[in-house]
Amino acid sequence: MAKMGHKMVALCAATIGIIYSAGYVVTEPSILALAQNPPASISTHTTPNIPSINPATPKTTTAANLNTPSQTSPSASGNSTSSAASAQGKYRNGTYTGQGSNRIGSVEVAVTVNQGKITSCEITNCSTHYSVSAIDPVLPNQVVARQSGNVDVVTGATKSTQDFQTAVQQALDQAQS
Amino acid sequence: MKTKSVKESFVKSQLFMDTVVSIKIVTSRPKAEIDESMARAFAAFYNVENVCSRFNNQSEISRLSSQIGTQVPVSSILFEAIRFAWEVADFTEGAFDPTLGNTLGLYGFNRDYLTGYQSVPTISNPNAPVSYLDIDLNEEAQTILLRKPLILDLGAIAKGLAVDLAVKELSQFEGFFVDAGGDIFAGGMSEHEEPWRVGIRHPLEKEEIIRTIQLSNMAVCTSGSYERVSPINKDSHHLINPHSGISQSDILSCTVLAPFAMLADAFSTAAFILGAEKGIQQLELAGLDGLMITPDLAMTMTKDLWRYLV
Fold first, then answer.
1. The domain containing residue B89 runs over which residues?
2. What ipTM was assigned to the predicted interfaces of this complex?
3. Residue B61, domain CATH
4. CB distance from B221 to chain A under 8 Å?
5. Is residue B88 predicted with pLDDT exceeding 90?
């Protein structure tokens, strides 16, 4: 029985060890860069990666232009600027803040986009407490927590990020506009 | 003569895998070291999510799910995660099963948590029921073969895996915890110079703590029916019994302690599915400790759990 009891523990230890040793590339160097140089204040800013005017494409699309050879030719040669724009993907690079309110208070998030992908969503301000310290005296359920002694952290079924959806969406809207 | 170094606490929270991940470090080491370790620890979540999340149709697991009947070469992380899931499925006789992705999708658990986009396909009429036995692992070739159309879901272990990998980046600190929405690993001592005090959330009164446990260098995970309700059927939740295909309702929550978060995560799910009595038996069999809460708020525990209760 003891042998069987330790089988899963040993297996888990081996699995974690293999994964950790195999290494995984921190594919987003911005994560480490951010850590070394945290922004003094998280502020909203836009990165002007997309040119507002594309000179390679004629603006008008009336019937008269059908006769123009350049209109019908493959776009490869003349559209170097537009291909750069389309490579950005859905979101533009940068860090964007968003605010929202949840059941108990307000939250603020900083969403970072790198190479068109969301690389992190950091909670930058939260007037409620999520599983962190319940010792803070301003926490409304402090009395209840004290009944079982102070707690440092709470285990419960995994909470979803629903409370942050508004804030995240606000940040992503800026990344898309 | 010993000078006591002043320890400070640092907390950061980020969103990953549809949960709030908080990391707290208690240490006298320099800030630059803390920042770098925090970044590497969060990077573990980013990487696990990119490989293991079925909600991201570009993730390695999503791409694997779309290839049936062929041996697909996969990364070490995905191979090992699926292999571990398979072993837990085998150990628990299918109470835990990583092939539940389609069923979960049909219950409405199929939206990307950041963007809200429904990016996960579902197989509306699968030919036959699927189980972990439809996964073939070739260790030498590091390939995986899926015998039938199915959607892999590693939700029950991916968070724990990310926690365990994050913990590897924090071992030099005197005290720390990694909290992935209630799936926790607590290392060393808290700022009060004692093992970490972990409150178990009351399954019905969400702002209350029902019991407190105290531990150091251990993981604790809780599975509960009360947090993620099916958007399609409000009487269902995300802890689905692979044998019946419906969500289990005999207990409200199950808390498991283990030396690794991935282990605690997997077994809190399996034990929950098995119910109050069989769940505790399974935990004892696996050499783990745990506590289960029934709808009338009675508790069943493994025989050594009392050691951790405050």
1. 55-156
2. 0.91
3. 1.10.3980.10
4. yes
5. yes
